[in-house]
């Protein structure tokens, strides 16, 4: 704990580098220098330390935290811009009476804050602000609207009107009585690299080298490092590079599910682990006793969050407690190298304008879910760019919006006062000079990645004292991959072309060329079986329905239809379940 002059910094340390007392936080530089409380890792700290040593700086310990303080002391705010890694921190400069809150480029690490009545509170979790008190806890209706459509909020919004998320690549500076939030980095810096590969072959070679460099510097740790292995291209590529650079046998972990009709990649992960010589462990997730896990995740997120992939991540992280404190994880490959199916569709965006409306209607009339899904995707492709990007990221449609499960007064209120597509319209304005695939990838990087996928990874792992590192989002990869032509990423009905070829010969062809399956958590199946009664009790709770204006009769009917299999309401019911669970834990 550090406190002076109206400021207090607290820290609960997860010791990764320099486990001694010289790495403890909050850390102050010298007798009266700046003080920092910091979450994350700076991957280029050894390079920065060498540069600082050359100009006369000395160090007490081996931590990256001390390097950050020295970089600020020596180079000022520009020194903070030199940091590469995953980080969110508060730095107090007592001499200048300056407070800096700063978040990494892509938002791997979270940072929340509240500014009210001249009082600033901040932390790595929303719950920390709630404990501090003085926060406006009224519902942010724009955030609620976004959540009902996508299962998470966007930009700087949280479900609380008085709590904001510092955007990725931004800092908040309090100085001379003024508060400013501004971008210290923008993704546009990666779109026009000075040294762009001249050919696809050169790009392939450089991607291979960048991946190796990223993994090597993310293996730096004074505690054991493991790998979350799905068996897909991204995590397999990371594992392959790690095996080459670790100098010791690494441990990997995978999760499967209790639903035979769903996606289960345990066999693929097992094969990759065998090929690479990993010490492999498997976890099977079932619907039994998931209630306590869902409540724990609701507490960890601090707001409703509906990406069910946080469940296996949480359970795998919980199983690691006491063994491994750092894991390498595969998120980011789809955004960097165009791995989503929508990227394949966007290759020929102009052709979809001629898609006839009657064909969509015919597809929706077919039995089963495949026809409705195809019609939804086709209709999305016919929309204007902003609506197209928004529609491709949710199963919800304007014909059957998720707000239809609210009472009419609440539906009207949200329709008048909110816009669930607002963030996508802003991204479209920002990136409208780029072709459709690149525009979608940039939108994914700026919106979906920090708001959904990275939030999922961070909360599920840190709730169990595990630090997740994401090598495919390393700066070495980002500054190369983001600016590559989309034709080098998507071709012939395949995504991630340049990444696949970069790993050719290092991984088996069936891993490189196998179909993308995603990490499908069978929550729809669970809501029909082992979780149905639990979900019904939470969703239909009178206090939840009253607070959010839910239509109990419509939700009751949807629960019955979903259980009977006559209509799939899985995603909307899962979102309302998480809304109810958050209401319970936040009470």
Structural descriptors:
alpha/beta; Glutamine Phosphoribosylpyrophosphate, subunit 1, domain 1; six-stranded antiparallel beta sheet; 3 domains; 587 residues; Rossmann fold; 26 helices; globular; five-stranded parallel beta sheet
* Oligomer class: single chain
Task: Return the CATH class of the largest domain.
Answer: Alpha Beta
- Beta-strand content bin: 5-15%
Whole-number tally of structural domains: 3
Largest sheet: 6 strands, antiparallel
Descriptive notes:
It is built from 26 helices and 16 strands. Helix 1 crosses helix 2 and helix 15 crosses helix 17. With 587 residues, the protein is an alpha/beta fold. A 6-stranded antiparallel sheet has the order 3-4-5-6-10-11.
Topology diagram in text:
Elements: E1 2-4, E2 7-9, E3 27-28, E4 35-42, H1 45-54, H2 64-75, H3 77-81, E5 85-93, E6 98-103, E7 112-116, E8 119-123, H4 126-132, H5 141-150, E9 164-165, E10 170-175, E11 178-183, H6 200-218, E12 225-228, H7 233-246, E13 251-257, H8 266-276, E14 279-285, H9 290-301, H10 310-320, E15 326-328, H11 333-337, H12 341-346, H13 357-365, H14 370-381, H15 385-391, H16 408-417, H17 422-431, H18 436-462, E16 467-469, H19 475-481, H20 497-502, H21 509-513, H22 523-528, H23 532-539, H24 542-548, H25 552-564, H26 570-586
Parallel strand pairs: 12-13, 12-15, 13-14, 15-16
Antiparallel strand pairs: 1-2, 3-4, 4-5, 5-6, 6-10, 7-8, 7-9, 10-11
Helix pairs in contact: 1-2, 6-7, 6-19, 7-8, 9-26, 10-18, 13-14, 14-15, 15-17, 17-18, 23-26
């Amino acid at each position: 704990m550090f406190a002076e002059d109206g400021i207090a910094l607290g820290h609960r340390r997860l010791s990764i580098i320099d486990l001694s007392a010289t790495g403890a936080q909050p850390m102050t530089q010298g007798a009266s220098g700046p003080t920092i409380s910091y979450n994350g890792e700076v991957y280029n700290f050894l390079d920065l330390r060498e540069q600082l040593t050359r100009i006369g700086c000395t160090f007490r310990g081996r931590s990256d935290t001390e390097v950050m303080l020295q970089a600020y002391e020596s180079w000022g705010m520009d020194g903070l811009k030199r940091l590469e890694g995953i980080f969110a921190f508060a730095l107090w400069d007592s001499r200048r009476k300056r407070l800096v809150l700063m978040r990494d480029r892509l938002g791997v690490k979270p940072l929340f804050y509240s500014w009210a009545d001249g009082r600033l509170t901040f932390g790595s979790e929303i719950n920390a602000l709630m404990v501090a008190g003085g926060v406006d806890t009224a519902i942010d209706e724009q955030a609620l609207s976004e959540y009902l459509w996508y299962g998470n909020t966007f930009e700087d919004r949280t479900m609380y009107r008085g709590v904001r998320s510092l955007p990725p690549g931004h800092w908040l500076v309090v100085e001379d009585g003024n508060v400013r939030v501004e971008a210290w980095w923008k993704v546009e810096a990666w779109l026009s690299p000075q040294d762009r590969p001249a050919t696809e072959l050169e790009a392939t070679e450089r991607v291979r080298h960048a991946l190796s460099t990223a993994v090597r510097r993310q293996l730096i740790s004074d505690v054991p490092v493991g790998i979350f292995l799905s068996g897909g291209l991204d995590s397999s590529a990371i594992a392959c590079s790690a095996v080459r650079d670790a100098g010791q046998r690494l441990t990997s972990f995978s999760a499967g599910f209790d639903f035979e009709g769903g996606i289960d990649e345990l066999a693929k992960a097992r094969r990759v682990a065998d090929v690479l010589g990993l010490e492999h462990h498997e976890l099977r997730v079932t619907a039994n006793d998931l209630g306590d896990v869902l409540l724990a995740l609701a507490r960890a997120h601090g707001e409703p969050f509906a990406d069910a992939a946080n469940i296996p991540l949480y359970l795998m992280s919980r199983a690691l407690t006491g063994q491994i404190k750092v894991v390498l994880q595969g998120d980011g490959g789809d955004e960097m190298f165009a791995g989503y199916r929508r990227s394949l569709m966007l290759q020929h965006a102009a052709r979809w304008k001629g898609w006839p409306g009657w064909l969509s209607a015919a597809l929706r009339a077919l039995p089963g879910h495949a026809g409705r899904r195809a019609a939804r995707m086709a209709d999305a492709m016919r929309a204007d760019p902003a609506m197209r990007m928004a529609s491709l990221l949710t199963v919800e449609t304007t014909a059957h919006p998720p707000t239809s499960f609210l009472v009419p007064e609440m539906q009207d209120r949200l329709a008048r006062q909110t816009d669930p597509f607002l963030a996508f319209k802003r991204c479209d304005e920002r990136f409208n000079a780029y072709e459709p695939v690149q525009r979608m990838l940039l939108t994914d990087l700026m919106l979906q990645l920090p708001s959904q996928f990275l939030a999922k990874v961070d909360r599920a792992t840190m709730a169990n004292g595990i630090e997740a590192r994401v090598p495919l989002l390393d700066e070495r990869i980002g500054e190369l991959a983001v600016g590559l032509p989309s034709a080098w990423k998507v071709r012939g009905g395949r995504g991630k072309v340049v990444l696949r070829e970069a790993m050719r010969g290092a991984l088996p062809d069936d891993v490189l060329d196998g179909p993308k399956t995603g990490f499908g958590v069978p929550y729809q199946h669970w809501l029909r079986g082992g979780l149905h009664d639990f979900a019904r009790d939470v969703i239909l709770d009178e206090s939840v329905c009253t607070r959010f204006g839910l239509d109990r009769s419509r939700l009751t009917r949807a629960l019955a239809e979903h259980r009977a299999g006559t209509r799939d309401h899985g995603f909307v019911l899962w979102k309302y379940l998480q809304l109810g669970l958050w209401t319970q834990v936040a009470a």
